[in-house]
Amino acid sequence: MISLFSAEGLAGLLFLGFIGLTLAGAIIATSACSLIRSVAGLALCFLGVAGLYYYLNSPFVALMQILIYVGAVCVTIIFAVMLAESSELKRVTRRNVLVGPLAFLASGLLVWGLVGLAWKTQWHPAIFYVDNWGTVENLGQSLLTIYSMSFELISVVLLVAVVGSLVLARQGRDK
Amino acid sequence: MMDILGLGNSLHTYLVIAALLFGIGIYGLVQRQTFIGMLISAELILSGASLNFMAFNHFLAPDPTVGQLFTLFIMAIAAAEAAIALSIIIAVYRNYKSIDTEDVTDLQG
């Protein structure tokens, strides 16, 4: 029995707050009218997900989530919104009014299937455990020993992405 | 009361939240009319997938560094994907003066 005013109770309350932040941010991100508001909802959702990572015993990934997603990806999307969205965007009437309800139906079916799968399956914990706790030290060591190849490859991918996006965004600039 | 406050210690909670994020992302991907809105929904789907990896990593995996590394790699891929997609959107806007999906129909038969 967890009392509300013990440490565990307060932690549980904070966890509920993070769940609410995540889901509210996701709903704002998909249903807000203006794009800038939906980017703000996306940042809110990422903050909530970072809190959930903290509860999953990995503060480093939570910090990286805030740094990369909220600090880099959301800011880049905001720049693109400011560059590309004209203020008096003509609202084209959607050709089919059924798109909204059908999208809701499809995503509802997917969620129903996934949640049913998660509840019905009997999850077994691992038989043996490697003797580490997933600390930052373990992360760094395995990043530079076992997974060093993937680490190098991901840096090459990032370099190619930077060069490619520069080339794409420069094309046709002098038109 | 105690069940609700102890929700963070069960695998099912995280799986349900990840499924909800995925579903909301799919809904936005189908329903949005602009390219940037679709990119935002794709980011939601990716974060649902990373939450799934982190939950399985914490509760079931024998080595708790593997899932964290996978999530870090997903973050790097998502950042690269966002950069490429946004520069494509800027190029499309320069040619069509619009980021609406209904306007970019040159290849439509």
Core attributes:
heterodimer, A: 175 residues, mainly alpha, Four Helix Bundle (Hemerythrin (Met), subunit A), 2 domains, 6 helices, B: 109 residues, Helix Hairpins, 4 helices
What does it look like?
The complex is a heterodimer of chains A (175) and B (109). Chain A folds into two domains: 1-87, Four Helix Bundle (Hemerythrin (Met), subunit A) (Up-down Bundle); 133-175. In chain A, 72% of the residues lie in helices and 0% in strands. Chain A is built from six helices and no strands. In chain A, α1 (7-31) packs antiparallel against α2 (35-55). The longest helix of chain A is centred in the middle third of the chain and has 26 residues, at 59-84. The mean pLDDT of chain A is 87. Chain B has 109 residues and is mainly alpha-helical. Chain B has one domain (2-96): Helix Hairpins (Orthogonal Bundle), CATH 1.10.287.3510. Chain B has four helices and no strands. In chain B, α2 runs antiparallel to α3 (35-59) and α3 (35-59) runs antiparallel to α4. Classes of the chains: A mainly alpha (175), B mainly alpha (109). At the A-B interface, α1, α2, α3, α4 and α5 of A face α1, α2, α3 and α4 of B.
| Rg of chain A computed from alpha carbons, rounded to a whole number of angstroms | 22 Å
Rg of chain B, rounded, reads: 18 Å
Shape of chain A: extended
Number of strands of chain A: 0
Helix content of chain A: over 70%
- Please report the total strand number of chain B as a whole number: 0
C-alpha end-to-end distance of chain B = 59 Å
CATH homology superfamily name of the largest domain in chain A:
NADH-ubiquinone/plastoquinone oxidoreductase chain 6, subunit NuoJ
Helix fraction of chain B, binned, reads over 70%
CATH class of the largest domain in chain A reads: Mainly Alpha
Q: Count the helices of chain A. How many? A: 6
